[in-house]
Amino acid sequence: MIRLENLPNAQKRGLDLVKEVATEKELRPFLVGGPVRDLLLGRHDVIDIDLTLEDDASTLARAVAKKINGRLRSFPQFLTYKITADGLPEIDIATARKERYRSPGALPTVTAGRLKDDLLRRDFSINAMALDLTTGELHDPSGGERDLAAMAVRVLHDQSFIDDPTRIYRAVRLATRLGFSLEAHTARLLDRAVAEGALASIARERIWRELFLAFEEESAPNAVAALSAAGVLEVLFGRRPFDRDLEDRLRRTASALDGTSLDRQVMYTAALLHGNASPVDLEGSGFSQKRARNVVQLANELPRFTDALAETTSDHQRFRLFKHASPEMLSIVAAAVPEEQSNVVRFQEFQSFKLPLRGNDLEVPLGPHVAKALERTREAVFTGEIEHAEAKTFAREMAIKYLDSSGQ
Ligand code: ATP
After folding, report:
1. Between 166-178 and 204-216, two packed helices, what is the crossing angle to 10 degrees?
2. Cβ of 206 below 6 Å from ligand 1
3. 164 ligand 1 Cβ < 6 A
4. Would you say residue 44 has pLDDT above 90?
């Protein structure tokens, strides 16, 4: 039994609005796919509002958008509309469709269809249910409710993974998220599709997109480790043996990312490619040159970086190393090497530490040596090497020393 009363306010308002407009216009919208699955599982936190109609999707989309003064966008190739408005979740409205896969891995041809066609073209039985918003009736042509109870991800036919191999990634991701297993026959079909090279029929870009979605999961370390265990990352990275430490690295990455705005795609990719990354591995990822460099550096230099850190004997030496590291590298070091955690925090404090001293205060000719001297002084005061009161004299001495040694 689906209870819509328990939904968060914005979602409830969104659905009430759709129901109201549907009654006025005598239309019959169905809530479909992920939200129905999540409602049946009692996962009410946030559901997408994905709707399907057999007829007149455009009438409903226009009327809903008008009523709330929302923004309406149309995607004719998918027979879909999207409505956005302040204070409401995004509302997707689609015409029920039939799909045909002409060749494995290619995008399907789409034509309008009935609700049942629309449900049976979907990936898994638990994603192939619809809730009639006008009557409350559940449409479940492929036994999705039964599979939810069995905690199983099951494809709807034997050709499913061949038709669309991105479903291989979706199956693993969804099972991990929900704590489900692949139903036994589905697991065999998945293994067979991978063994027969089905993944080669899709563009690398599409595989990267799937991998990035795994990075977004709440349990990203589990999702990525499961993809690796299923052998479906080799198509991107070659026959690289993913070592036993992968799960640990992914977990450390998750904790380094926690509560930060660091680059999760860069960090998880680096955790995957640890010790052996090259720009070729990143083909199709869409990483800019700068982010790609960051991945390769993080993946390949972390061991060397932590070795070098272990050799340092002063804050001065340590800070010199930290200054050349990306924020991602620093946070991974803090997560990976417990002894360095407090040093990284100290360095972060140092980065925002300011000295009330300017180049003009030093009474020396201006030039690059002055900035260098001020930076050296800032560090000396922060680390306690000199007293605050000595800063100006120290900076002046440093500036003269640097100026002399530069031979000017
Ligand atoms: P999420 O919570 O990740 O958004 P979702 O199930 O809503 O989960 P979407 O990617 O938003 O996932 O897709 C919406 C629906 O479209 C799915 O529930 C599924 O029914 C269908 N779908 C998505 N991708 C595929 C695919 N590759 N093949 C078949 N059906 C698909």
Report:
1. 10
2. no
3. yes
4. no
Q: Given this model, what pLDDT does residue 240 score?
A: 67
| Residues 120/42, Cβ–Cβ less than 8 Å | no
Taken in order of first residue, the domains within the chain and their CATH numbers are 1-144 (3.30.460.10), 151-232 (1.10.110.30), 243-352 (1.20.58), 359-406 (no CATH)
Does the pTM exceed 0.85? yes
What is the best residue among 115, 127, 170, 210 to mutate for testing ligand 1's pocket, by most ligand atoms within 8 Å of CB? Answer: 127
Structure tokens at 212: 């990035």
pLDDT digits 0-9 by tens, 98-107: 888 888 888 8
Predicted local distance difference test score (pLDDT) of residue 356: 87
What pairing do the DSSP bridges indicate for beta strands 138-139 and 80-84?
A: unpaired
Burial category of 292 from C-beta neighbours within 10 Å (exposed 0-12, middle 13-18, buried 19 and up): buried
Ligand 1 atom closest to Cα of residue 166: 27
